[in-house]
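FW: tagging you since you asked about this chain on Friday. Here's the raw sequence from the shared folder, copied in full. Didn't touch anything.
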Amino acid sequence: MHAALTRSTEEGHQEEVRLDCCGSAAGRPDGAFVCGVRRILVA
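HL: got it, structure written out here
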């Protein structure tokens, strides 16, 4: 599962913010979801 949104920074740049989630396939024995947020400067 992942979600992405694009927003404008205060400096007027475009920034893409992605939320990536990995389930138990990531090797977590408890089956918990592991989520990470990545911020990518587009322009």
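FW: The chain is about 0% helix and 55% strand.
HL: agreed, and The chain has a mean pLDDT of 73.
FW: great, closing this out.
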